[in-house]
Amino acid sequence: MGDPEARASVQAWAQERPPGVPVTLRLAGLPAPTSRPGGDVQLLEVERHLQEARRHYINAEFAECLQEVGDEGVLPRTLSQGHREVVARWLLWQVACQVGLRREEAALQVASELGVLGLELPADIGVLPPEVGRVLVTGAEQGAARGRTTLRITSDASPARISLDGRRGVCTAPCSLEVLEGRHVVRVDAEGRQFAVQVISAKGPELAVAFTTLPASPELAAGQWATHYGESSANLDSAGSLRLLSTALRAPRLVLLNAEAEREGYRLRGALAIHGRAAARTERQGEVTTLHGTAEGVLRDLLIQGQVVEPAPALYQRRDFWIAVGVAAVIAGATTTALLWRQPVRTEVGF
User: Phi and psi (nearest 5°) for 173?
Assistant: First the structure.
């Protein structure tokens, strides 16, 4: 990441597979934001059922109308995605179909969920007869008058953001929420984990809600990273960003380099993550002409700090050093002996 010119230079250096680096490098591109067509398809399918229910109601085909909006799984699924207005319309047409079938008690029970979930009356109510509106309002008021239950929410992932009935980020687990008695949809989202949803029936003074989440797939981790970190360079080397990148790029050992342009060169900041956990950080300054050497120096610092490779031993710890010292000592000793040695004086006396 970082300055485009420096980024291109560092990428070229990495692709050259520098021979002095004691590891094999693989250059990876950062994840890009991706759309989720699956959610759009589901929403379009719900909209199709609503339109069909309206058509059957206009034709007084109330049984067929109820069949179109009778899928019980739609409400928690759509509510967990935050589409509160769509859920309100779904409940409205359930009430309208029940009233058409002269099932007022069942219609009141459905309408009470509007009050329990705190949903606004949808605009579709304006095209329905007054008796449908009366039942809808009465049922919603009955739901809003129910007793309250305190939810004690915990999660195995931390931090975990809690959504309640389509309202995102109402608290961070562990936390407590007060709700009306009845059916509610609770969702937990955490970085590096798959989201989890529970449909709970609140009753009594307290209810414990515990979540167990699964690890995120590389594709999901890539989407989370692009959403939370991809649009800003402020927290690129944070613990959360490194954890998601390691999963998204399938990189047990990941180095993230960030190049910042300065007046007389660049500042390279590096972070090393091992199995998603930050293991080392460092930074160096370098000129444009020495950027490759600066990048290699940053990488070596990270590998040594993270104990991926052994640091070079000190001079006095090297075997070659002591061999050289020994040879030098022998040569010095021989030279000294040669210089100081003198032929002994021999005296002979004869007669």
Answer: -65, 145
Reported as a single tens digit per residue, the pLDDT across 206-253 is 999 999 999 999 999 999 998 888 776 667 888 889 999 999 999 999
> For the segment 250-290, what is each residue's pLDDT rounded down to a tens digit?
999 999 988 888 877 888 889 999 999 999 999 888 887 88
277 in the Ramachandran plot: left (φ > 0), alpha (ψ -120 to 50) or beta? Answer: beta
pLDDT, tens digit, 9 for 90 and up, residues 323-341: 666 667 667 766 666 666 6
Cβ atoms of 160 and 190 within 8 Å: the answer is yes
Percentage of the chain lying above the pLDDT 70 cut: 86
* Residues 113, 146 contacting (CB under 8 angstroms): no
Alpha-carbon distance of 136 to 144, in angstroms, equals 12
CA distance 236 to 228: 10
CB 221 within 8 A of CB 34: no
Cα–chain-centroid distance for residue 288?
34
Which of 247, 300, 243, 250 lies closest to 273, judged by CA? 243
Rounded CA gap, 15 and 134, in Å? 71
Amino acid at 314: A
Task: Please tell me the distance from the alpha carbon of residue 315 to that of residue 317, in angstroms, as a whole number.
Answer: 5
- Are 89 and 121 spatial neighbours (Cβ–Cβ below 8 Å)? no
N-term to C-term CA, the chain: 102
Which residue bears the tokens 């609770």?
A: 186
